[in-house]
Predict the structure.
Amino acid sequence: MPLREFLGPEQVVVDLKATTKKQVLIELATIAAEKTNIEKRVILDTLLQRERLGSTGVGKGIAIPHGRLEGLDTVYGVFARLTDPVDFDAVDDEPVDLVFLLLAPEDEGGDHLKALAKVSRCLRDQEVCGCLREALTAAAAHEILAPRIDDAA
């Protein structure tokens, strides 16, 4: 599944302001709700429920919150670079400044897992993360992500 199928340039934010993990999730849920027509509260509850199972802060300043939602018909993503890093209870106890939200239909597994794997592989590349941290615009960040995620095997 190519990135452009689940993350358009309008789903990229390079200056997200938040001071807590919950605020980050609220902001991402707000963006996702506008595009998916699923209530923000439903999205947020799904993300918070997933975080209770274990943090999606994967280390090195990166978090990949994700969940499955009834009423969603395709995988959907939002990428955000935070203005200031926040504590995300990451596995390495380091604050997070790059967040990639993935949402998938409740009864769908394959595309969601493939998208999650591609995003994870892409964001493990410290060169990519460095470029994302330096991107001046959402369009520039999208152009950094798109070919790398599409090429991730």
In short: The domain at 3-151 is CATH 3.40.930.10 (Mannitol-specific EII; Chain A). Residues 21-36 form the longest helix (16 residues).
